[in-house]
Design a protein that fits this description.
The protein has about 300 residues and is an all-alpha fold. It has a single domain, classed as Rhopdopsin 7-helix transmembrane proteins, CATH 1.20.1070.10. The protein is about 75% helix and about 0% strand. It is built from twelve helices and two strands, in the order βααβαααααααααα. The protein has a two-stranded antiparallel ribbon with strand order 1-2. α3 (about 95-125) runs antiparallel to α6 (about 160-165) and α11 crosses α12 (about 295-305). The radius of gyration is 21 Å and the shape is globular. Residues about 1-5 have low confidence and may be disordered. It is a multi-pass membrane protein. It holds the Pfam family 7tm_4. GO terms for molecular function: G protein-coupled receptor activity; olfactory receptor activity. It is found in: Cell membrane; Membrane. Keywords: Cell membrane, G-protein coupled receptor, Membrane, Olfaction, Receptor, Sensory transduction, Transducer, Transmembrane, Transmembrane helix.
Length: about 300
């Protein structure tokens, strides 16, 4: 237990997978492989889009933003997750914990914004194709990227400072292999009302708003597609959205599920929380490059050329 009167900075203990300590070496190999594939896949996407001038289009610029965000998200969680399973290093100082949760949450909200921008890209391309080039200009895309970054960083920026002021006396064991705001907040013996309300506001104004706008954009896309007479043209239009829909589901499903479990699932199994946490952190960066490589002909062809050199 942590003492509320202690002048020493608190040390938190991260959690691996309880009851599976005997197979930690095998789990570490699995997680290390996931990280390697994620980082190589996203780096390859970035390299291909940067070096191929024919891919310097809005759709691929947004894809490069997604790949960069996934790459940074992998880097922010890798040290603590692999540290637990490789070296059984469970301790993390409050300062390191706050830095990690700042990057995890900021990058998650930036990724949510990028997925929204990709939905907007598909909406303009399908519903108003004649204005596509004039709406999604390079300066406008750059401004969108800056706004996404400022929103993600700005909304999370106060949280580490609020958490740093708290006294921690309710134990020091976190239920994941990395730090999250809602986890650290629950360990405080101070009044966490402000953090709880602000955290809910941030979730609603980012993930909640973004997912609602993405849903709205696809309702309008479907309405436009269904008005197309040719069945072949309908299929072609919808096919351009498949990769993005997969990315949206891969990101929002575990994220919303984990948030619901943390806020309302007090009686749920700890193992469910832990496994959902790994899915939330590891699966989107792993699967996004694979999905886009398989479903986007230009990316697939370019990867094939690179690998066959």
């Amino acid at each position: 237990q942590l003492s509320s009167g202690s002048s020493q900075p608190p040390i938190f203990l991260l959690t691996g997978i309880p009851g599976q300590e005997a197979v930690n070496p095998w789990i570490s190999i699995l997680f290390f492989s996931i990280y390697v594939i994620s980082m190589m896949g996203n780096s390859l996407i970035l390299f291909i889009i940067k070096t191929d001038l024919s891919l310097h289009e809005p759709m691929y610029v947004f894809l490069s933003m997604l790949a960069l965000t996934d790459l940074c998200l992998s880097i922010s969680t890798m040290p603590t997750i692999l540290g637990i399973f490789w070296f059984n290093s469970r301790e993390i100082s409050i300062n390191a914990c706050l830095v990690q949760l700042f990057f995890i949450h900021s990058l998650s909200f930036i990724e949510s914004s990028v997925l929204l921008s990709m939905a907007f890209d598909r909406y303009v391309a399908i519903c108003n194709p004649l204005r596509y080039a004039s709406v999604l200009t390079t300066p406008r895309i750059v401004r969108m990227g800056l706004v996404f970054t400022i929103r993600g960083v700005g909304l999370i920026f106060p949280l580490p400072f609020l958490l740093k002021k708290f006294q921690y006396c309710r134990g020091n064991v976190l239920s994941h292999s990395y730090c999250l705001h809602q986890e650290v907040m629950k360990l405080a013996c101070s009044d966490i009302t402000v953090n709880s309300i602000y955290g809910l506001f941030v979730i609603i104004s980012t993930v909640g708003l973004d997912s609602l706008l993405i849903l709205l954009s696809y309702v309008m896309i479907l309405r436009t597609v269904l008005s197309i007479a040719s069945q072949e043209e309908r299929f072609k239009a919808l096919n351009t959205c498949v990769s993005h829909v997969c990315a949206v589901l891969l990101f929002y499903t575990p994220m919303i599920g984990l948030s619901v479990i943390h806020r309302f699932g007090g009686s749920s199994s700890p193992l469910v929380q832990i496994l959902m946490g790994y899915v939330y952190m590891l699966v989107p960066p792993l699967m996004n490059p694979i999905v886009y490589s398989m479903k986007t002909k230009q990316i697939r062809a370019r990867i094939t050329r690179v690998l066959l050199r």
